[in-house]
Design a protein that fits this description.
The structure holds two protein chains of two kinds.
Chain A lengths: L1 E4 L2 H4 L9 E4 L4 H11 L3 H5 E2 L3 E2 L3 E5 L2 E2 L12 E6 L5
Parallel strand pairs in A: 1-7
Antiparallel strand pairs in A: 1-2, 3-4, 5-6, 5-7
Chain B lengths: L3 E8 L2 E7 L7 E6 L5 E6 L5 E7 L3 E7 L7 E3 L14 E8 L2 E7 L2 E5 L7 E2 L21 E6 L7 E5 L3 E5 L7 E2 L20 E7 L2 E9 L2 E5 L7 E2 L9 E6 L7 E5 L16 E4 L7 E3 L17 E3 L7 E4 L5 E4 L7 E4 L5 E9 L2
Antiparallel strand pairs in B: 1-2, 1-28, 2-3, 4-5, 5-6, 6-7, 8-9, 9-10, 10-11, 12-13, 13-14, 14-15, 16-17, 17-18, 18-19, 20-21, 21-22, 22-23, 24-25, 25-26, 26-27
The chains are: A alpha+beta, B mainly beta.
Chain lengths: 89, 357
């Protein structure tokens, strides 16, 4: 099971919001995003843009490493942090 | 007679609703809504549903919906895409409900429709299949489709306005489109005015006279009396050709309002710091300045394309919001004004809605 940490600004977009920390099986980020989208329809659109690719200002860290490749393999017990980039204004 | 008037205000940091009774003297502010997302446009459909057009730097574009007057919101962008091989949609500029359909104008320019109240969207692909599309070039304001103008009785007809591209009309429900820019200047390109490339800032019509269109353009103000096939410039009498918003009187197709700014290359604020709205009651043949109650010195305010609107009361109210967070209103068709809100985030849009018996 991978452990996923979601940002507050993402979970509050859903009327039945996911928990900030959840566990789910996923071998890649593509699979993880698909499972999140199954549970909370529309989640994929918030995290990914055409390509498909991770949105420009969304950072995904897998076991502490920033990952942009949705297809990169993940360890079964991976810890995934989804964190919006910092911004000014 | 409506007993409640509301201003639907989209800002850089969320949506707000300003409410008053029919006297329109005392206003209450509600919000911010939509998780303080940047909201380009907030509208209320005839069934009472609120829709907000958002574009968030992290999470992309989405349309927000509230069926309980703003208490709770949901959002969806399902189908709001040009596909994995197409350009990335960054934000939604305009939402226009019409006959049970909700239309969305997006950046980069395109038109989408939802027939299930904003849950899913489909691309009105015919517009971007126009042969001019590869030559569309964004201006400083981007390549946004900001004006959606359905014909009031013919569901197959619609006009749209795209910044730095111009006006288009469809007469077959969106399958095909034709340019509607003849007579409109484009001083930022050399030579004669082109077929497209004009920078329309805001365009609209009055439902009682749907062949009469008006537009505030980057290069002047225009009227068309034949559905946009030919435009006549009505700038003479105004202190500047440049401005963004335009509002059409709800009960008089010959009365429109514009807010001239000092110039495209001069800061785009009120002329000499003097806040002024201009009104014509004869379709643009003559203009009157309206500044009663507005700050007339040291007021370097800007007003963006979607940030002026009118209510449907008699006399009609006129409202505009500024890029520094003020909202001004008039309950007497612009003859006098009051400050309604002073400390909102930068205002991007003002729409009106009324309810009551």
């Amino acid at each position: 099971m991978a452990t996923i940490h979601l940002p507050r600004s993402l979970v509050t977009l859903f009327s039945d919001p996911p928990p900030r920390r959840l566990d789910m099986p996923a071998a890649t980020l593509t699979e993880l995003v698909a499972r999140l989208d199954e549970g909370w329809p529309g989640m994929r659109d918030r995290l990914c843009e055409p390509g498909p690719q991770i949105r420009e200002h969304i950072n995904v860290f897998v076991d502490g490493e920033r990952v942009r490749d949705l297809g990169a393999p993940m360890a079964p017990e991976a810890v995934v942090h989804i964190i919006p980039a910092v911004a000014g204004g | 007679m409506s007993d409640r008037v509301e201003l639907l205000v989209g800002t850089k940091k969320g949506a707000f609703i300003l409410e008053s009774d029919a006297a329109r003297r005392d206003w209450r502010v509600r919000g911010p809504f939509c998780e303080t997302w940047p909201i380009h446009h907030l509208v209320r459909a005839s069934d009472g549903t609120l829709y907000a057009a958002g574009g968030n730097a992290w999470y992309g574009p989405s349309v927000w919906r509230s069926e309980d007057d703003g208490a709770t919101w949901s959002q969806s962008s399902d189908g709001l895409t040009y596909g994995d091989d197409g350009p990335r949609i960054t934000t939604i500029w305009n939402l226009t409900p019409s006959n049970g359909t909700l239309y969305a104008g997006v950046e980069p320019a395109g038109l989408f429709r939802s027939d299930d109240r904003g849950q899913t969207w489909s691309h009105v692909a015919g517009l971007r299949e126009h042969p001019s599309t590869p030559e569309w070039q964004p201006g400083n304001g981007g390549l946004c489709l900001h004006s959606i103008v359905p014909h009031p009785t013919d569901a197959d007809r619609m006009w749209v306005g795209i910044s730095a591209v111009g006006a288009f009309e469809t007469t077959d429900g969106g399958k095909t489109w034709e340019t509607r820019n003849r007579g409109v200047r484009a001083d930022f390109v050399p030579g004669d005015p082109p077929e497209f490339g004009q920078c329309v800032h805001k365009m609209g019509l009055h439902p009682d006279k749907p062949e009469v269109l008006y537009q505030q353009n980057h290069c002047g103000v225009y009227r068309s009396e034949d559905g946009g096939r030919q435009w006549t410039e009505i700038t003479p009498g105004l202190p500047s050709e440049f401005g963004f918003p335009m509002a059409i009187h709800p009960h008089d197709p010959s009365t429109i309002y514009v807010i001239p700014l000092n110039g495209a290359d001069k800061g785009r604020h009120m002329i000499d710091g003097h806040t002024q709205v201009w009104r014509t009651r004869d379709g643009g043949d003559s203009w009157q300045m309206l500044d009663g109650g507005l700050p007339t010195s040291d007021a370097y305010l800007g007003v963006l394309r979607e940030a002026m609107s009118m209510d449907r009361l008699r006399p009609a109210g006129v409202y505009f919001g500024t890029s520094t967070g003020q909202v001004f209103g008039s309950s007497n068709e612009g003859d006098s004004w009051q400050l309604i809100a002073d400390c909102l985030p930068p205002v991007w849009s003002v729409e009106t809605s009324a309810s009551g018996s």
